[in-house]
Amino acid sequence: MSDAVDDANATQAYFDELQISKVRQAAKRLDAVATGYCLLCDREIEKSGQRWCNAECRDDWEKLKKRGLL
Ligand SMILES: [Zn+2]
Question: How far is it, in rounded angstroms, from Cα 15 to Cα 2?
Fold first, then answer.
């Protein structure tokens, strides 16, 4: 009987973990939201939905993000 309880707990823990990682991923996406301005250099972007003015800014931004500087 205790095995069934352990299994239930393990399953619950697995789903909790899954939910947490989903929320984390959503949070990551949220802080890289398109604002109409380049997220790195603040230059105005004409194309809507674009987050950086060019690939260079995007790459630099991603580097800074990975180092935790943003
Ligand atoms: Zn830029």
Answer: 20
What distance in angstroms lies between residue 55's CA and the mean position of ligand 1's atoms?
8
pTM here is 0.54
Q: What residues form DSSP beta bridges with 37?
A: 44
Whether 34 contacts 46, CB under 8 Å? no
End-to-end CA distance of the chain: 50
pLDDT at 50: 92
Domain boundaries, the chain: 1-30, 34-70
Taking the centre of ligand 1 as the mean of its atom positions, its distance from the CA of residue 35, in whole angstroms, is: 12
Tell me the C-alpha distance between 70 and 57, whole Å.
13
**Residue 70 CA, ligand 1 centroid: distance in Å:** 15
